[in-house]
Amino acid sequence: xxxxxQSPQSLIVQKGGISIINCAYENTAFDYFPWYQQFPGKGPxxxxxxxxxxxxxxxxxxxxxxxxxxxxxxxxxxxxxPGDSATYFCAASPISNFGNEKLTFGTxxxxxxxx
Amino acid sequence: DxxxxxxxxxxxxxxxxxxxxRCHQTENHRYMYxxxxxxxxxxRLIHYSYGVKDTDKGEVSDGYSVSRSKTEDFLLxxxxxxxxxxxxYFCAIGGQTNQPxxxxxxxxxxxx
Lengths: 115, 112
Description:
The complex is a heterodimer. By secondary structure, chain A is mostly beta strands.
């Protein structure tokens, strides 16, 4: 079963616009929520991550919004640029004594930014 | 990328043949992981290792085995490859508290 549901599957946004990708989870033990960015031919790279003790985290043009009661989190990319065109994955993991070794990924969103 | 080298980067082989993929790290991380990436499924954990000779199964471990005889190397073996194992395989390291998992650039494996 898909423990982390991601939508939309693909997204086209005009340059300068806001890109929004949503994820929902079921496992209440999840305690760490990263977003990864992947370019063709490359491995995923961490973009930004959040723990549920805060409702929002911002790094530059990228913001994670987190709603613990709804078990949902989303990625917002402000002032989207052509260089942001990539596939984005949300993920979730419980936090063990070691860390976040048991990541469960969403199915990915292919984002295309058009001029 | 983050001191991770996957080899080979591309491989084409036939059904029923054994295949071994290698992940080499220079970061001395205790934890290493093997994932497969397929359209519509995201990344799914196959096996992971939490130390030399210490491994555990992930979500999609059937048909795969792993070995870790040195801290820096984590091998993924398909004993008898099947067409359903055609995929892109990623190795990752890290995942300690407040540290993310870092991924290699993948191995594209095609089984005909």
